[in-house]
Design brief:
Helices cover 49% and strands 0% of the residues. It is mostly helical and 77 residues long. Helix 1 crosses helix 3 and helix 2 packs across helix 3.
Length: 77
């Protein structure tokens, strides 16, 4: 897994993290950089091709939502 090499912005923002998990990002020290690492972990385990836009984010809404939620829960874990 690459170290601090992000192909795209995180699949999940800090605000989305709070909304999805019900957590408090500042108390849990959740940052965009940590969410980028969580996104890389998700990418490492996803073995399915999907179309992406110019920012590297999934174009399919369902795929986007699944990866966003998976990133939030990976960060929470």
């Amino acid at each position: 897994m690459p170290n601090k090499v992000y192909l795209r912005p995180s699949y999940c923002t800090v605000d989305e993290y709070e909304s999805i998990t019900g957590g408090n990002a500042s108390q849990e020290t959740v940052t965009l950089a940590k969410l980028q690492i969580a996104s890389d972990i998700i990418d490492y385990h996803v073995n399915v091709a999907f179309k992406i836009d110019t920012d590297g984010n999934p174009t399919n809404t369902d795929v986007h939502d699944i990866l966003r939620d998976a990133t939030a829960f990976q960060m929470q874990y």
